[in-house]
Amino acid sequence: MKKTLLLTLSALTALCGFAQESEAPTPDGPTYTLTLKRTDVEPTEATYTLTKSYERGNRFGDVYSVSVPIDVVGANKPAKYAFTLKCQYTNTTGEEKSLTATWNFNLTSIDEPFTMTIGALVYDANATKPALRFCTSNSLYGVADTKTRALCVFDPQKNGEKVSTYLNIPIDNGECKPISKLNNNVETDFLFFTTTGSNVFDSSKGFKSGIYKASLDYATTMLSIEPATTMDITIGDSEVETFVCPADIELPENIKAYTLSYDVENPNIAQATLIQGNAVAANTPVVLKAASGTYTANITSKPTYSTVSDNNDGKHPLYIPDLKSEGNPLVGVLQMHYVPTDSYYLNGAEFTKYTALDENEKENPKVRINPFKSYIALPEATETPASLSIEFPNDETTGIENVYVENRGDEQAYNLFGQPVGDSYKGIVVVKGRKFIRK
Predict the structure, then answer these.
(1) Nearest-CA neighbor of 272 among 259, 289, 253, 285?
(2) By the 8 A CB rule, do 137 and 117 touch?
(3) What are phi and psi of 414, to 5 degrees?
(4) Strand 403-405 to 434-438 pairing
(5) pLDDT tens readout for residues 370-408
(6) How many Å apart are CA 133 and CA 199, to the nearest integer?
(7) Could you tell me how far CA 18 lies from the centroid of its own chain?
(8) How far is CA 393 from CA 260, 272, 275, 390, in A?
């Protein structure tokens, strides 16, 4: 049965401030104002009024929001901002009262003006001491499991509008919670969030194993998570993107999918082999090629997951390991983590090697790989150039043809690169000159 999670995101932000009052607001409702100030140059200040954006049926639990322009582009880096959010109301004795939250934030690179949306509400309004909480579109939020392992991340938005992404829940009765602030010091196979106290909302239980679409609306502070039957795939200006899915996928006809191979005799090149047709087998890391834009792919089978149950000394016992295929240097990611040292991440139309700098050098920024993306890991003892370009075939009709979903028993099977594979191999195989999807 389709299940939907609807939670207030205002409970998850680790950056929110709060104030307390001895009396709860009266039924007349609050008035919200936002004062935004830039502090690293000669101070500039603007004040905005928030309007009701979502009715929760609980007077002071209603959400108010405003979208404001951040259009000061200066030479100073980082640009420093401070805002004050105020909720004013009249208590039962006619006294004017207020709740105030403050937040300071830095913008390390302002290459163009953008819009910031702020959603706010009085949290726990029925309590004796209510608190004012908010979420902002230029902050990082995400969804984690009960061990605070990251399942997906909503990166800060420049337009302040609702944003969506996808996540995997690998087990039945899975639990999720909205959360914020990634732990950048973690060195494990997956990423963790950090959180304290009331920044974590109530856990939600009962999800079935599968692929889910998560959406975050900053104006209403609402996070929704629902089963996905399709996936939106965005191809950037480079017209190349990596992809992997734990289920079989049917791509639109104007997207071409390729597996890769690597020859040590040509160390700067990854050779692409076209998958003819629009079917990509489950758990097969690929490179997609298409004109820039957003495309919708159909999920055509139930996803399958392989989980690891003893990691990090048993403190966090369940996660989804990366997907690897014989002869294919692409490594598929179903649960986000940072790119391993000396591996390659897609950077424009080519792959760039990530190399961690030693302790005497400035920290090298880590590169995050999100779920449903891939990176390249070359065989050990292989020369590792600074970058890898993709060599696409000139005659793309020489790729795989006539893909069937069929089990061919004990006959010898080969992968796309002519290498013999065993019965446990999953994906596209060649048996007696014909191509099949083995599940």
Answers:
(1) 259
(2) yes
(3) -130, 150
(4) parallel
(5) 999 999 999 876 778 899 999 999 744 333 444 444 444
(6) 10
(7) 28
(8) 11, 7, 11, 10
